[in-house]
Structures are given as structure tokens and as C-alpha cells.
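The aim of this short unit is practical: by the end, you should be able to scan a pair of folded records and say something sensible about each. We start with the first protein, listed as its amino acid sequence and then its C-alpha cells.
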Amino acid sequence: MVRYLLPAIVPFAREAAVLRSFVLATSLLGLVSASALADSLGPDQIRRIDADVTAILDRTRAPSAVVAVVRNDRIVFRKAYGFRDSERRLAADVGSLYEIGSITKQFTAAAIVQLRDEGKLALDDKLSNFLPDAPHADEVTLRQLLSHTSGLPEYLDGPDIEEAATRPATFAQLMARIAGKPLVFAPGSKMAYNNTGYILLGRVVEVVSHRSYRDYVRTHLLDRAGMKRTFTVADESRLAGMAIGYQVRQGTLQRAPTIHDSFGWAAGNLVSTVDDLASWSTALARGKIVNKKSYEEMTTPAPVSEGTSDYGLGLFVDSVRDQPRIGHTGGSFGFTTADEFFPKQNLRVIAFTNGSSDPEPGEMITNAIFDDLFPEIAAAARKAASGENPEITTQTRALFEELQRGSGDYSTLGGKLAAKMKNGLAGRLADRFSPFGSPTRFIYKGARSEGNLHWHDYLIEFGPGSQLKFSIGLDEAAKIASISYG
């Protein structure tokens, strides 16, 4: 799920910076009882987890990871791997601190919902009720900001983003980055992951509560959840056990810059431990932060007039391995994290890493651990559908290879799609697909017809925890007229 604080390339077939689709399909194996997972992990399960986490760190070159598995509100497995400080060879431990990036959005959303429950605002209020001078304030509601359905331009866009994000910024300066830009789409029509909305929501918290955002979060959220080891990026220099963020540049692992606290702010400025995040997630789900009805609202996908949404209020609501999943990932310079809950299995998996890459190692680890704990479900999700046309599969494989290279003759494509490839789409898709590496499995998942296109769906796997849904749409001339992925 990119669900990065910092922007990533988006799938052209969806107006969203997410790589998940809202599919709550159910298989018989999906109806696994929560009792199928013991209250402690067995040695074989731990060996599988160790092997997969190590493989993912090697593949992504992330120096370290800390993972936790939670069942029945209790951590049943917790382990650190690698180095939180690669240069000084300081080993990570289970109490190491990592930036959690966009997982911060859960906290901002919970603050707004709390204020709503206290009668201090309504989610369908216009933004202009609180911030009349904000861009497009009369056109968008708080609910649309919370659910990424506002259509606001992205404040993190721009060629200067890496430099700008490391400098202090006022709220006015952040808003100046989108001032004068039109809405990307009509509010409420689509879902597109958007950091701007959460910056605006942070300011709404301040206006309504008459407290600083930082103070509100500490008093009403962190303290209430019992989180003693959660801070912001502004505190990093004084925190014992703080991990160093890394990224690969020009083939070498380098220390990443740190996003400034005031720049990421309510969209992604928190630093935490896996224990604290587990405490938060339990408190939020158990009614200690917002009431049960409000939590249900947070975990219900927002309605949109076009397509579908896989986001509620501060939380993604989607699926993996055909199993329902609720959670969020986070990414900033040098860090990726994931906090994912699987309600059918009553299982939460949390993963922190200090390496930033796409695909995200944090989410890859949570997916791999789920597979390690429920191999039967993973095997069922990998089962190929009947009716595969080997010729079309070979054609699709060849196209995917071309897209990863960013070059090809595109002879199998329809004229409009081929023209888009030659006009820049090929380069963008190469940036998106090449980091996945060579597929380890190419699985046919069925065919369907929509409009005048006949679609063939595939699941492509690239190693532990890494997969991509990829589809081709054939026109009446058997040319590939459209592709989609997610």
C-alpha cells in the first residue's frame, strides 16, 4: 500500500497512491477460526518468519527491521533484525524507535472523530467553517479530507520536495504550495491518497480544541493509549535507540535526510516503537480512543461516485490473500512501516524498517508473516483459475518484461496505448515496475468482460510478501488496449 507520506508514482488506471484494491472476496479457507493461530508461535513458524524477513531486508537493502505479531491484544512474537545504525553497526532491538510516516494519519483522524463525538464539529462541515482562507475551503468537507476524496492538489508535489521537506515550514507556507492550483477531481467523486488533507485537518484540530496539535495528540491520544515511547521527528536527536533512515542512491546505501517536523506534521511526523503502536491499535479498536460506533465508521470505506474506495477515516480497508485487512503503512525519507490487522484471523502484524524503497519492505514483511502463519490461505490465493489461454499469458509476460525495461516495440498494443507508451508512459511504468525484479510466479486469476474489452487478470509474485495484480484488456482486434495494476 503505498501509503507513503512522500509521493510515489501512482497507477495510471486509478487516481490513487495506493497499490491495493478493495476486494473482500471470501474463500472457504478464509473462514479460518482465530483459534487456528496459537497464543505463541512454533519453531517452524519462527524459522519461516526469520527466513522471509532476512530475504526481504537483503532484497531491499534495508539495514534493519523490528516486527511484532499481536493476537488477542497480546504480543505473541516480537523480534529485531539487523542494524538500526548501519555505519556504527548498532544492532536494532525491539525497543528501537522508527519514524512511522503516514501511520500518523490514524492519530489525526482519531482527533477529528473525538472532536466530532464531543459535538464540536461535524464531519460533513465544510472546511471553510474552520479555515475560511484555505484553498478550496468552500468546496470540501472534513469527511472528504479524512477519506482522501477531496480532490485537493498534493502539497508534496514538486521538483523541490526533498530539499523543501527538510526545512521548517509554517502552515501558511505549506498551503502556499497548493495555492492557485485547481482541484484534481470533483470532491467525493474519487479516492486519491492525499497528504494535503491531513495537514488541513491538523490545523482544524488546533482551531477547534484551542491547543497545539502536538499537545492535543499527547494528551488525548498517546497518554490515553498508554504510549510512553512515541515522539515526533523533532525529538529524534535526543532519543536513545533511534534508528537511522537509509536509502539507496546510485547503487549505494546512504543515510537519508530527515523530514522536518513542521513539514510532515499531522500527515506524518510521529516516531514510535512496535510496542507503543500495538498499544495504540488495541486502544483504538477497543473503544479507548473513540467509541465503538465511531471506530466502525473509521473502518468503513468512504462512498465515491466513480469507482471504489479502500479507505475509511484514517485507515485502509482492503484485502490481501483474499482476506479482509484494516491498517496503514507509512514511509518517509529512509523509513517504511506497516501496521495491519486481519479481522478473520484476529491477527495484527506490525513491521518497522529503516530503509525506504518501493515496493515497501514494511508492507512486504507484514504480507510475508501472514503467509508464514497461514500457509493454507496463501496457497489457496495462489491457485490458478481455470480456462487460461497460454498464448495470452505468454503475451502478457512479454509485455510486463517490456514495461520493466521501459522499452519495446509494443507491437501487441492498440494504437492509443502504444502512443502513450512512446510519449512517456513507458518510462513512468518502468520506474514503477523495475524495482520489483524478476517475477517468481505469474498466476492466471481469470477473465472478465467490461464494455468492449475482454480482460485477463494475473497475480505476479516477486518473492516473500511481494505481489502485484496485473491485468490486460484486449479489444476486438485482440490488441492490448488497456492495462491495470494494483
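Turning to the second protein, read its sequence before its C-alpha cells, just as you did above.
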Amino acid sequence: MAINQKVYEAIIVGSGFSGISMAISLKKRGIHSFLILEKAKDLGGTWRDNTYPGAQCDVPSALYSYSFEPFAGWAKKWSDQPQILDYLRFNAEKNDLQEHILYEKEFSSSSFMENEGCWEVKTKEGDAYTAKSLIMAIGQLHHPKIPDFKGKETFKGNTWHSAQWNHEIDLKGKRVGVIGNAASAIQFVPKIVPDVESLTVFQRSAKWLLPKKNSLYNDKDRRWHQKYPFTLNWARHSNNTFNGVFYHLMGQNKFWKKLWQGVSLSHLKKSVKDPELLKKLTPDYPMGAVRVLLSDEYYPALAKENVQVNVDGISYITEDGIVTKSGDQIPLDVIIYATGFESNPFLKGLDIQGLNGLSIRNAWEQSTETYLGITTAGFPNFFMMFGPNTNLAHSSVLLMVENQAHYITECITLISNNRLKYMDVKPDFQKKFTRQVNERMKKKAWTQAKNSWYKDGDIILNNWPGKAKEYQKLTKKVDQSAYTFCQ
């Protein structure tokens, strides 16, 4: 360890909802010796990066916000990207987090120094920092995924991923191809359809989609929420209760599936009258197997005369368009990839070395095992937020994030109060937790999807199989018997 180098209580990597929540939790506990390393020039994570037209949350604003910081000023029931980013900035400013954030400091590597009980963290810019605990708050969805289509490098038009939107290109009068039809595409496609000459959506599989019924909040609504804060809490509670309905879709409950599949198909048939298009947009798998989407605008947009939905599959890309597996040549000026993110492996491409130089890559080579999705054996004082098996497919992930911030703060306090060198989860507890999660997954609808970002091979690696309340109970208190402690 470098002489006179400051040793922080914690280093947080990432300044999205997870990182900000973690920092606020530490400060509330009186822990002020920490840094937040952020690779970009601004905070915000997902809500900083995704600026495509129509970017919006698919969780109601009252629920997609911190429980400790209800906000009366939401413009819509389901908020747009700019206001969500502003909400995050507000939380950072209110809690004086700017003094802790180091911008344009991209995590490069880290190694645990067992003798000192500290992590040495290095950045790609050549800086080095030391901390008792290391907290990865980088999320699951930040590596844009672009399929390796043959010939894609030969395309002479403009091309980009939806998470890296090129706002300098005017799409007016352009022939546009959109590859993908999931969460991002259903938001930006309706926004660009009025401008483009033609739009072709290249769809691999149809998605189950429900009406969103978004609505604006007027000044009267906002004054009401500000005067009576309990109304926001009620909205949060009622939204969370309603989302319990979606939890049943993730299982094998035939009644709920039949009911909501009927709602989805009715929504589709109201907007789409063409029998051929209707067939293309009707899913052939059970509802809940992949992410259920919400939109009032997507189906009407696809029914426009200048829009085509192609389900033939992409054979290869040429310099002036796409050739499908059926042999059709579709000329294009712009190709937009709405193909999601590389969610696996977790901590993709990061050099993290724990005890005896064990790398996280090697530790997870056979199986990604964790305890509570937060800690992993052989990596002391190392914590993850929004880690393996902690994504909620039926409600707001912020419910999980706040629980994780609480649990990690408890661990860091435990280390500090007992003057421990480190705490390391026991392999047996980790294996038991992972085994129980995997067993429960066998009863979930996610196993019935051939392709999903939830899966790594046949293993459901991203999602939590239970409700958020169950996870809250598990993370409320640190079970010290699950850890080895070193003085």
C-alpha cells in the first residue's frame, strides 16, 4: 500500500440509481469516507445514456423513485428520461454527493490486499485508490449488444444502437431499419414513424404488450401531492400491489396468464386490423416468459402505411441495406439496433482479484454463485448492487436496490465497529442460496423462452424468483453465521 495514501471506508463504482442510493445510505449512517468512481462526465447511468426519442420508464413514477425521497413534481404517471435524470441529480445535490464523485474515472482493475484488509482500485486513466470495501454499482444493462451480422461493417449508411442515439442525424425522409422490437424499440419507433419515408422493423419474435395508459399530472395534481405527501405513498403502495398481478404471470398460474393474455390480444386487435400483421404480432409462447411490455403507441405505429414488420430473419447486411433469409433485399439509409444489452457474464470484462489472486472470471467460470446476489466467496469486503438474481421482472428494481444498500451499509458498519480486516461469505451459504434460487426458477415461465437476456444458457441468472418483500426480509439483518471474519 502506498505511503500516506488515504484509505477510504468504501469505493462505489457507478453513479446510477444503485450508486446514488448506496452513497446516501452510507451518509445516513454517518460514513463519509467514500468515493464514487464514474466513467462518464455526468451521473445517471442508464438514464444518462439512453436518450433515444420517447425514452420513458415502464414503472410508474411513484414507484420508480426512492422510498425516502418521494417527489411531488412528476410531470407524468410514467416519467420521461429527462425528468428521471433530473431526479437523480436532485438526490445527489441534496445529499452533497458531488464532493464524493470523481467523473471520467473508469474502473480498470482491483485486487484485494489480504494483509491490509483493503482493496486497491485502479482506473483506466492511471489513478489508484484504496478502500476497505469495494461496491460495484454498475448495473446489468450497460454494454450495448450488437449482433455480429455478416457484412454489417460494409453498410454505407448511418447506424447506431438505441442506447447510443445519434441526434445529429435527421431521419426525415430516410429509409430506416430497426433491428429488434423490445423495450426500447416500442418507445422510439412511434416517435420516428411520422418523419421517415419508410420503416422496417426486423422482428425475431412477437412480444406480449399491454396498454400503458400514461397520463399527465397537472398543477393541481402536483399541489395535491405536495400538500398531502401520503397520497404519493398511497400511489406507491397501490402500484406495488398491482404489480403483484405481474408476479403471478412469471409463474405457472394458468388463470392469470389467460386473463392477461386476453387483455394483451384485445389491445392488439384494437389497433391492428390487417390479418397478416396481426399474425406477426401475436406471440407463440406463454405470457411472462420474457419481459411484458407496456405501450399505447407501438401497435398504432406499426399499422401505418410506411411501416413494415419483417419476420423472415436477417441473412446479411450489404452496403445499402439488409437481405433477409427469404432472399428479399430491403434498401435502407439508416440501421438502428434495438437489440438490448450484454447482461452476462456479470461484471463483464472487469479485472477483479480476491484472495490468493483469484479472479472473478475464474471464480464464476463454472457457475455464477453468490449469496443474496450481493457477496461472493473468496472476495472479502466486496459487494454488488443489482447483481446476479436480483432483477425484478414484475415491479420496480429500486425496491431491491434500497434493500441492498441497507444490507451493504450494515456489513461496512460491522467491519468498522469490530475493527475487522475483512468478512468473506462462506462457500456453503453461497451454494445453498444459489441452489435454492435455481430450484425455484424451474417453476417460472422464464424457462419457457428460447432466447432471453434473463438467461445464461439454460440458467436464469438475472431474475429474483420471489417478491421484493421476501428479499427485504432476507437483507434486513446480516446473518453473521454466513461469514468468515478476519481480525
